[in-house]
Amino acid sequence: MRAAYISNWHRGRGGGIIGARTGSRETRTTMHRTGWGRAWLIAGLALLLAGPGLAADPSPQTGSAGANPSTARALVTIIGELSYRERIALPPGATLLVTLAEQSSGGDPAGPALARQSVDLAGQQVPLSFRLTAAQAKLKAGERYALRAIIQDRTGQPLWSKQSAHVINPDQPLHDLGMLWLTRAAAPAPAAAMDSPAPTLPGIPFQCGDRQVLVQARDDGLDLTLDGVTHRLERLLSASGARYGTGLPDGREILFWTKGRNARLTITGEAGLSCAQAEFPDDPAPRPGQYEASGRSPDWTLRIGPERLELVRSVTGTSQIVQIPVPERQLLADGHRYVARLSTGELRVTINPGLCLEPRTSVPFPDRVTVEMGEQVLSGCGGSAAAFLAQAEQWSVTLLNGEPVTDAGLSLRFTSQGEISGNAGCNRFMARYRADANGLTIAGRSGGSTMMACPREMMLREQAFLSALRSVQTHTVEPDGTLVLTGLDETEIRLRRVGGP
């Protein structure tokens, strides 16, 4: 019986035959055609699967001394490679998850995974090899099984994915699936309706000489990202502006001193750099008809386009993706709902208009969203942060850096297309802004204003107001409806809502 395993042949992707009998003419010829590494890998796996001691003793044996065939073939191995055609590098911290499961009638994986491999890529780039091992007893001859591969970033967000069906014969100890081509995750057809913009880093960019710094405010300081490394800076005493600093492991110190849209970056042993807040690029045109929602604990994201609904949720460290045609919209007394039948149960998405604060940043959104899948209930916020700001006819300033300004006529008006305009007291102005779950940024050099001259006190207040607007980084809404805009240098603008739903 052992001799039968030694002469068990497996076909390689190069079209030749790879034999387990090392040194044979057939093996040497095939290695030359398919590549030494690939041939040795498959030949070695065949020997391992054939049972212990075969390489050392290739002669036929009979009786109890031979290996038990059922034991030798108790496991089935599936190997292959994953790649994609786009020239895009995988980010640091990316992981690969490959699973094999029974296939449902709709082609999706059904039931628990029969085989699973999770790999911390540690900087590896495509092509990536995978190896799954499944119990022979759990496989059925002639059945098709669903193989799913997902590459995720360090937060669990899927980047690339592949799902395909394969016949896995339990009597064949090794299956080589060859090269499988990945596609961008979370990009269902039609691409124009559901494709997502490239992710943007949170915070405000500053240009410091020839180096770019990204700054994200915290309650007790700020996170400063420089040369791809994020440093946690604490708030320090300052006579003017806002000053932050921290020590580095090598004994040096980083200081970041900001005032309005300008700052200064100092690193021990290096020349100080003058910094200016960088303008953000124009946002892409809004995707017509697409609705987005998200939540935490666990993290999840929902996108509803004109034709498809997509739900991505984090489950035990991995991302599960549901993509289905958009169900019929059901109107409710206080919102609307989508209901769909899945192979795993019922999916219910309920959207109710009303103030919703993002749990981490307290950024306001216009809708409260609930997603129910079986016994799991996910809660979060929906719509866009810009849409919430645009609901008011205007926002009237009540306090500017702690000083009442109710009689000054200072006001703001936002549109959902990223435009902001208002009255600065003497002159009217307009600019562009960006609002998302990370906060609010106003691009001061992207618009214009009138050039009227007013009394000195009014002009000084106008300058203070416009300077505070340019430094805004975060925004939230208090229980009484007050909109609070805050900046890195402790500037604060408080506004009340005027008009709107």
Explain this structure.
The chain has four domains: 75-184, Immunoglobulin-like; 204-277, Beta Barrel (Lipocalin); 291-383, no CATH class; 387-498, Lipocalin (Beta Barrel). The protein has seven helices and 36 strands. Strand 25 (345-357) and strand 26 (364-373) form a beta hairpin. Helix 2 packs across helix 3. The chain is globular and about 90 Å long. This is DUF306 domain-containing protein. Keywords: Lipoprotein, Membrane, Palmitate, Signal. Residues 392-491 form the DUF306 domain. Residues 206-272 form the C-type lysozyme inhibitor domain.
Secondary-structure topology with pairs:
Elements: H1 2-6, E1 10-11, E2 17-18, H2 25-34, H3 36-50, H4 69-72, E3 75-83, E4 95-103, E5 109-120, E6 128-135, E7 144-152, E8 158-167, E9 174-181, E10 183-184, H5 191-194, E11 204-208, E12 211-218, E13 221-226, E14 229-236, E15 242-247, E16 253-259, E17 262-267, E18 273-277, E19 291-295, E20 300-304, E21 308-315, E22 318-325, E23 329-332, E24 335-342, E25 345-357, E26 364-373, E27 376-382, H6 385-390, E28 394-400, E29 403-404, E30 411-414, E31 419-423, E32 428-436, E33 439-449, H7 456-470, E34 472-477, E35 483-487, E36 492-498
Parallel strand pairs: 3-9
Antiparallel strand pairs: 1-2, 3-6, 4-5, 4-7, 7-8, 8-10, 11-12, 11-18, 12-13, 13-14, 14-15, 15-16, 16-17, 17-18, 19-20, 19-27, 20-21, 21-22, 23-24, 24-25, 25-26, 26-27, 28-29, 28-30, 28-36, 30-31, 31-32, 32-33, 34-35, 35-36
Helix pairs in contact: 2-3
